[in-house]
UniProtKB/TrEMBL annotation:
It comes from Nostoc punctiforme (strain ATCC 29133 / PCC 73102). This is YbjN domain-containing protein. It holds the Pfam family YbjN.
Length: 159
């Protein structure tokens, strides 16, 4: 049985990739992903004067935020969710544990600290960002946060 494969030159391949990614409406993709994940009609969106967007929705026991600071290739999508308020019990052990998780089980996301809160966060530029990657970023942050928040609060939460 003969197999025929289309061979593209490197310029054709690059142009094909550009065509696939330039037509993406990131706002629509983000809203579709949030619609598939959010619970109890909890999704809300606000627009910033600078042309950005901020979504918030409930996923399991956490609130997830998705921020788009614009729609050009240089702009970014940031997804985060708070899992623990600080100060916490035994912070050195907590920080070591979070670093170990960052190394072993957070994929494109990571644990970090923002304004005395432990968060799960991921950031990426919009350049060549596919709908699948948008879905993956939001899903990873939401899932890791929901899978870890209660255990972290039980183990390290302030009394």
């Amino acid at each position: 049985m003969a197999s025929y494969q289309e061979t593209l030159t490197s310029d054709e391949s690059i142009n094909e990739l550009i065509a696939e990614t330039t037509g993406i409406n990131h706002l629509e993709v983000i809203e579709n992903v949030i619609d598939s994940l959010e619970q109890d009609d909890s999704a809300m969106v606000s627009h910033t004067p600078e042309g950005g967007y901020l979504w918030k929705f409930k996923y399991g026991s956490v609130e997830v935020f998705v921020q788009l600071n614009g729609t050009t290739d240089e702009d970014t999508i940031t997804v985060w969710s708070t899992v623990l308020n600080l100060p916490a019990k035994d912070e050195p052990r907590l920080l070591r544990y979070l670093l170990e998780l960052n190394c072993s089980s957070t994929f494109e996301a990571r644990f970090g600290i923002i304004e005395n809160r432990v968060v799960v966060i991921s950031t990426r530029t919009l350049a060549e960002l596919s709908p699948g990657e948008v879905s993956r970023l939001i899903t990873i942050v939401a899932t890791i946060a929901d899978n870890n928040d209660e255990a972290l609060q039980t183990e390290f939460g302030a009394t």
